[in-house]
Structure formats: C-alpha cells, structure tokens
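Blackboard transcription, Thursday session:
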Amino acid sequence: MNKFEENTLSSQTIFQGRVIDLIVEEVQLPDGKTSNREIVKHPGAVAIIPITAEGKIILVEQFRKALERSIIEIPAGKLEKGEQPEHTAIRELEEETGYNCKSLTHLISFYTSPGFADEIIHLYIAEGLTKKQDKLDLDEDEFVEVMEVSLEEAVQLVKEQKIYDAKTAYAIQYLQMKRVVEQR
Amino acid sequence: MNKFEENTLSSQTIFQGRVIDLIVEEVQLPDGKTSNREIVKHPGAVAIIPITAEGKIILVEQFRKALERSIIEIPAGKLEKGEQPEHTAIRELEEETGYNCKSLTHLISFYTSPGFADEIIHLYIAEGLTKKQDKLDLDEDEFVEVMEVSLEEAVQLVKEQKIYDAKTAYAIQYLQMKRVVEQR
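(Written on the board underneath:)
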C-alpha cells in the first residue's frame, strides 16, 4: 500500500484553526533527497443525497467564502470529534434541511484533495424523508436556502455551474446512472 | 449568484507556500454578526482520463503524504501561472504517463473542497494516445507508477479503496455510465 513512501524528517505546525490545521513536513523522498509537503488537516465530513417520496433531490444553496460566490450543493457537514459518520449524516440532514430520514445508505467515501489535504467525505443516500421542522437548526455562521429539484433540473444546474463541486457532481452523476439502469 | 454574501472585514495571510497559501478572513455575515473563515488558496489543477485504443484506462499510483498512504488516481497536475488548462492537461499526461493524445475533450470542472479551499479541477478525456517516451518526465519530488486497467478492474480498485479520491471516483463512474448507455 505504501509504494514510494515518504518518511517524515520534521514537522512544523503552522496554524491551528477552527476548521483546519496547516502542517509543513520535511520528508525524505524514495530517492533519498528531501522535499517539503504542505498538509491541511481536516476532521472529515459527510454529504447526503436526500431523495423525497416524489423522487426530488433536496439541495442547499450557500455562500462559500473560499470561492467568493454561492453554489448549490447536497447537504454536508463536518464530523464532530468522535462522531460516527452515520450520526453526522442524520444530524446534518436535519439541521440543514429540516428532514428526518428512515433509510440511510452509504454510497462511497473519497478524499477530496489528496495532493494537499486529508479531508475525506462519506457520501450517503437518505430516503424515507419526513419533515421534522420548518425552522432550520443551522450553526451560528451558517446561512442556507433549501430547494427541491428534479434530476433534470439538477443536471441543468451542473451545466450552469451553479452546482460546481465534486461531491455534488458525483451525486448527480450517480442518480443519472441509476435512472439509465432502471430504464433499461 | 451571491446569496448570503459575506463581506471581508479584514484579511490575514498566515502562510505562503510552494503549493498553497493560507488566509484567515474576518467576515460580516448576512445577519450583521462577524465570523472567521479559514481559506486555502490553490492554483487549480487538471485531471485527465486517458483511454487507450484497447479501451483501457491509464492510472498512476503515488504516495500522498497528506493521507500517509499511496493511492491510485487518474493523472493530474497543478496549473502553472498563466497556463491554459488544456495545455496543462497535455503536459501532465505526457509527464506522468509518457503518452501524447490526439483528442482532448473537456468533461466537467468542479471545486474539490468549497468549505475551505478554492481548488478547482478541470477534468478531460484524452483519446488517440501514442506513446511518446518510455521514461517519464516527472517533477523532482514526484514518484509514480503507471498502470493500464480495464473498467472492471478500475471498479474493483474503487471497492478496495485503492482508488479513493473524488476526481478518480467521478471519472470511473462516468465511464461506467458511458458503458451502460452504449449497451442500451
């Protein structure tokens, strides 16, 4: 598993933040030379594809400061310390959309930016949705607008670059493939 | 486009690195309160799905220090300053695999981690491959092993978590969908 392993010679913590930490490590390369690796530490996250009884997808629009624009994403949120991803998924779905789900199925997990970050996203499908509350239970610095769209509308949002992130693009492509397989 | 926009009150550059910069911004939230945003600046990247005449996919295995393990990915690389993504794609394909391509088609672009980073990946399909050189032209600190796999083998690598990143998972799912559509 560890082909071309790089051994850490020294490690310097540059920043410890609310969401991420930044570490710079001096490493020994497979050929014996040295190099530096800039590494962002992230607690990991979940993302949820919530499908309503009518077959619509629940999405959230929010402003992303890193991009200086708002984009439309599937609901997602960071793992809290020691929290099981399934619990995070149920919690974030309820907080961001007001829905509970009867069924939660793990679809895939993937690293988002292996070149510089250890962020992993665990992706789930949530079905059997029931509205628990109209008022959202968002974090203090979180502002989202919830929308329900058809698969066709979601595909259009990808084309218009309103859906513009990897996890949501993966989710929409998954639903497209599922539709094609079911229609065979 | 800028629903729930957050205005920057102050910006502090914490780190300027070889690959990423880290900035912390104090922002004014839509409700007038303030918060901090931790933002990783990245030059952006391309990733390429190289398909051989035999229908195999060319993948590269490399050690990812952020994950402390090696994973198998589609070829990818950072944009150099002022470089057009298409040029980066052609350059990186040749450097990492030794192949030139006759046809390069843009598939999708997406942000990888909009919660904390501005990294965007432009994803291309490369076809009409010809081997230009056997020796790879890698960066000084880059060590990769090239492999050619069938779609079935790639799907198995996803299941085994040897393929474990968003761009490669998206690419394999895209090829699976293409196969299903073609077989209808």
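Lecturer's comment: Chain B has two domains: 7-41, 45-183.
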